[in-house]
Amino acid sequence: DLQICQHRAPTCCTKKMEESYQAAVRRERTQSIQALNFELKYMIVGHITAFQEAFESLLRFAENRTSSLFETAYRPMAKEAAEPVKELFTDISLYILGAETTVESAVLRFFDSLFPLVYSRLINPGITDLSEDYTECLRLTRQDINPFGHYSKNMVTELSKSLWASRMLSQALSLGIEVINTTEHAALTKECSRALVKMQYCPHCQGLTLIRPCVGYCLNVMRGCLASVSELDAQWREYISTLEYLANEMAASHDLEIALSGIWSSINEAILHAQLNGPQLSATVDKVCGQPKQQEGNLSSANIVPVKEVTEAPKFVMAHASLSNKRREFISYMKRSRTFYASVAERLCDGDLVMRDSSTCWNGEDVV
After folding, report:
1. Of 20, 197, 250, 285, which residue is 20 to 30 A from 302 by alpha carbon distance?
2. Are 312 and 64 in contact (CB under 8 A)?
3. Where are the domains of the chain?
4. Cα(227)–Cα(108) distance, rounded to whole angstroms?
5. Distance separating alpha carbons of residues 18 and 119, to the nearest angstrom
6. What job does the chain carry out (predicted)?
7. What is the pLDDT of residues 251-276, one digit of tens each?
């Protein structure tokens, strides 16, 4: 009553053993594909971690630099500006990691929070009563009177370009892991598990436990079994090309490092622009929001010191070099895996499974 290992000669197999063999080949096929995938998956997971660490390092550097700008050049508002600065960099970090947010909303939210501080601490330092209503009015007025000129929009444009490539690369790496995990657990068809049993275990039914399948026979069986996996070949090659494109974008016009390190400068230019246009802004704000209480003898803004370059260069250079090296190393490795899905059958038949240097092998029917 054997269904798979039928043979003219006497047999030492039973139907129950055939069923055990089918369970064994399913398990072995999954394990062998997992073993093939392991290195590729390990590389991608390792680089997801490395990229995220480099992103975080650059973000921390840019955030510290921006905080230092307020502490050294705009001391009257440094304490209150700390929260908006922190929020801005948290939003940027979430955006890179794929959160449903935009760079524009993060940057404009920051400038909305910044304007009441700039207006009450730098432009009109005599304001004593900064009620919630008045603060909210200043926030809303920012969108209409555009106190920061083109600097806020420029910052959105610069960051959007560079952060987009980083966000896409981050998402693409996660997609790669998903694809690999899916191929590991692709179900075997009934025909495939029967063909694998015939190739690997039917010789055992005649006591031939040391004989191995012929190379050509193994390749035919494996290609049949892995037809659905090898269909991924074209898409995988396309995926590798996309990774390469994103990595090049990050290194060229969308350089994340340059954009992040320039945030403090954009904010500084925006604040200086608002200060230069202080009288016009005050006139417009008074019309829209009314006049707040002023302290006698308007305070001068003499305690505002000229902005200096905030030096944290060594840390930045290290993070920049780390990200650039990781990018190059990763793309070089991924390019070598371009044919990964086209060659799965060959790699599964290469090794202990088949008889390489022997005059005899199993062809599915007999020893040849």
Report:
1. 285
2. yes
3. 15-293+315-349
4. 51
5. 82
6. Cell surface proteoglycan.
7. 765 577 788 888 999 999 999 999 99
What is the structure's pLDDT at 43?
Answer: 86
How is residue 46 written in tokens?
Answer: 């390792």
The sign of the torsion formed by the CA atoms of 265, 269, 274, 275 equals: positive
Q: How far is CA 345 from CA 79, 187, 200, 222, 239, in A?
A: 63, 16, 15, 5, 21
Tell me the C-alpha distance between 284 and 307, whole Å. Answer: 27
Q: What distance in Å separates the CA atoms of residue 286 and residue 140, rounded to the nearest whole number? A: 14
| DSSP 8-state symbol, 232 | T
Torsions phi, psi of 336, nearest 5? -70, -20
Specify burial of residue 195 (Cβ count, 10 A radius: 0-12, 13-18, 19+): buried
Q: Report yes or no: 167 and 204 within 8 Å, Cβ to Cβ.
A: no
Contact residues for 258 (Cβ-Cβ < 8 A; gap 6+): 162
Contact (CB, 8 A) for 100 and 141: no
Reported as a single tens digit per residue, the pLDDT across 120-171 is 889 888 776 678 888 899 999 888 899 999 999 999 998 988 888 889 888 8
Written as six digits, the tokens of 222 are 């494996």
**Gap between the Cα atoms of 65 and 309, Å rounded:** 9
DSSP helix/strand/coil, 150 = coil
Task: Tell me the whole-structure pTM to 2 decimals.
Answer: 0.75
- Show Cβ contacts of residue 32 under 8 Å, excluding neighbours closer than 6 positions: 348
Torsion angle in degrees (nearest 10) through CA of 277, 278, 279, 283:
100
- What is the spatial distance between Cα 219 and Cα 209, in angstroms, rounded to a whole number? 20
